[in-house]
Structures are given as C-alpha cells and as structure tokens.
Amino acid sequence: MSNIINPPYPVFTDIDGSPLKEGFIYIGENLQDPISNPVIVYWDVGLTEIAEQPIAIKNGYIVKNGVNSTIFTMSNKFSVVAKNKYGTDIYENLSFEQFINNSEAQSLINTSITPVQQSIDDEVIRATSSETSLSSTINTEINRATAAEAAIQAQINGLGGGASFGYTSYADMIADAASIPANSVVTVGGDPDPLKDGMYIYDGSIFSLSPYDPLTQAKTYTDTKMNAVIEETDSSVPPVSLVDVDGWFYGGFYEDGSMETPLFKISNYYSDGFIIIDEDSWILLEQNTATSATKDWSQKNILLFGDSITETSNVEAGVYDSLAYRANWFLYAYAMLEVKSFNNMARSGASYREYVGQLDWQKISHQVGVAISTGFTPDIVVIACGTNDGISNLGDYDTAMSKNIVDLDMSLTAEALRKNLYTISQAYPSAKLFSCLPLQRADVETSTRQPLLDLIHKMSGRYGFTVIDCHNETGIVKDFEVWGSSGRDLYDGLHPKTSGQIKQAKLISAKIKSNYQSQV
Prior knowledge:
Layout (H helix, E strand, L loop, with lengths): L21 E7 L12 E2 L7 E2 L3 E4 L2 E4 L2 E2 L8 E8 L4 E9 L4 H56 L6 E4 L2 H6 L8 E5 L9 E5 L4 E3 L4 H20 L6 E4 L5 E5 L5 E2 L12 E5 L5 E6 L12 E6 L22 H8 L4 E4 L19 H11 L5 E5 L12 H6 L10 H15 L4 E5 L13 H13 L3 E3 L1 H4 L24 H20 L3
C-alpha cells in the first residue's frame, strides 16, 4: 500500500509565484462571496477554538500568533479568497471541496462495514443451515426410493400369470425369451450400454422398457430437489453486493468474508458472460465468449487531455491513472470501453491558449509534453477542452495555418490549438484521435461561442481527429441549467453532475466504438 506525502501546511503564493509574505484569507459559504458570507473557522480539529476572519498569512503560511497553523471548518465545500497586504486577490475559489481527514474517514468506513459484516455472518449461518437441509433431503430421498423399489418389487412378485426375471445384459434377456412367460417383468442391470439397463414388460413377443423405473424416477426427483437447494445457496455471485444508487456495481463480499472491490471489473465473477444496461437501455458493459473477440474497441490504452470536466487524477502529484481524485465522465467511460490502461493528464482550469499567471498544468501544451515524456503508448487519444478559452483571444484559422509551427503565437486559441493537435498527431501516428467540443453552459447563449466551436471542429479535422460534438449531442442543454447553482445535468451551470457525466460518457464511448466498427 502506498500513501501520498502531503506538506503539513498549505502554501500561498503571491502574484509573482513567491511565498505570500503578508496577506490574509477569508473562508465563506459555498458559491458565495466569502467576505460577505463567512462561515465559522476553527484553529483546532475538535472545533473548539474559533479563528476570527480574515486569517493572517505570513511567508506563505497561515499563522496564529506568528506560528504556522492549520484551520478547520465543519463543511467540506466552501468558498475561499486570499489577498496580499495591498488587498489584491491572489487566489479565489467559490466552490472548494475538501476531503475529510483520515481518522474521520476511517470512522465512516468502520460504521459502514459493521452492518455489512453482520450480513456476511447471517449469510454464513443461512448457507450452513441450507447445506445441512440439503444433506438431510438427499438422505430422506434415498430411503424413500429404496422403500418404493422394494414395494414395487413385492407388487410385481404378486402379479398373477407373471413372474420376475433378472439378467446382466440385454442380449441375455433376448436369448432366454422362450423361457419367459407372457406378462412378466424383466430387469436388466450391468449391460455394456447403460441405456439398455432398466425394467422391461414382456407380453410374450416384445420386451417394452417400462416408463416407470423406480431408480430413474428416484434419481430424477432427487436431482431436481438437490439442484433447487444448490441454486438457492450458490455463492458464485457475491451474496452482499456493493452497488450505488444508480445500479453501478463496485464489488462484493463473499461468504468466507473476503471482499472484491475492483471498480466495474465484474468479469472477475463470471465465466459464461454478462451484460449491464442502464435505465435508457444503453449497454454499459458487455462480456461473453461470443462477443469479446469482436470488440475491437475494448482492452485499449487511452490517453486523455483536458480541463476540470475531464480531470480524474492528481497530475500535479505525478498521478496519471487514478479515477478517485475527481469524478467525471471518464469514470463511467472506463467501464463502457473496458479500458486496459490509461493516463489522464487533464487539470482544472486548462485551456488551449496560454496567458501570464497560468499554471503549467493548465496549459494543454504542458499536458502533452509530459504525456510524451512518460513513454506511455496509447491506442486512443481523447482531448476535451475549450470552455476556458472563450472567444476574446480566438485568432483565426487562416492566419494560424499560414505560420511555421515554431512561430505560432500560443496566446491565441487558434494558433495554440494548431500547435497542440500537430504535436499529438506527430507523437502518436498509430493512435485513433478524438477531439471533443465543449459542453453547453448556463452563462452564455450557445451561438455566442459558435466561432470557438467552428474553429475547434475545423482544426481537429485538419489534423486527423474525429470530432465528437459534446456541445449538441450529449443532451446537456443550456435552458435547463442555472449559472452558479444546480440544474438538470450541471451542478453549477458549468460542471456536470452524475447525470451529465453519464450522458457525456455515453456519447464519447459510442463515438469511439462506432469509429472502430465502421472500419472493420
């Protein structure tokens, strides 16, 4: 098990990137101005000592009486603004999400596991009881069949005009037919062909296999009862499944107490195959011996670039293959595409164009450069960006195409877009390339951003990228969203919540699958 080592205190930097020598920070309600809508902040994890706002920052650290300190709040989502001593904003985030600390997380885990463990214990007791009942049922049936056979034989022996004969082969019975009276019952047991064993009725000329053979009937009855009990107690499927509210499978507990939690890797539990569909009948995951050989889009290495709408990994910590850092559409597409491995270089705030004060990871060119340096070889590349570019520094397609690559102006979206698509296409000549148009958002009319959409579409096609129209085809519509608040598919008018993430995942996955199938 590995753990990320984080610094003990957060560091705040000034406009020039150096530690903020003197400044202060405000903490407020989520999506509200923290100065006019503050929340209660504490100096201690026990939430007993209130910290008055604004809170001082010195040499980059939050301080209390000159000593580096940490602050706490009861909410895991809140707004933050940091200013320098001149009152200039250094950092602002109106919806900062903070995970709970390790001890609180462990407490929640322990609380959640207790009822699950009880379910496991109950299931073990039930399975043991069922197995005992099964054994008793089998023994009872053996006794019943034996008694039935004896009773039938007694009835046969008492039949008037007939007799009972036994032979070790069907051929011996036929050879001795002349000595067997009509209306006799003849039993064959031990014939080289088991299908010829059984009870025959002889009418004086023909031996007819009796439809009522006690042993066959007993075996059929016993097998039926036993299979019913076995199916009831079958533990090939986890008796305690871990499934979220939308029906997505995350893992399960087995009767022996072991636990499986590979996200979406449900194929570990079944051998013959399975299919998972959602409420709209979209196939989320499919696997069986008949289809797995034809799914050319599955088990591929995928590389992603983008902004906060695609981000799933803590790239600044050097982690590129995590689905746990931030939930987004790729969390669901990972299962739909049955991904073999991936690197997701996306970082919140990223854009094609570059500007002063922008963080390195917020530059698509930096994401592309790091991806190339890792040596990761993708089969599929998806780039989803542009919502942070806007149209104020758009540039134009013709000017961008007229320049040499080394002379492109990275402060203009058109020229930065060309440089990045060119570099990706050059670095991964064998990969299938996909470019996603930005989603609709609540703050501006879609027609306002049409020049940006047209530019991305045209430049992507120029460099061999298949364009995925997330703007018009996901089902995320501006009219049903609210800027700064939760709507139908966006939780703040910009970022998708679960329903929007799944819609986006469905579209992108379908386009990738279709691209492979159309080239078979």
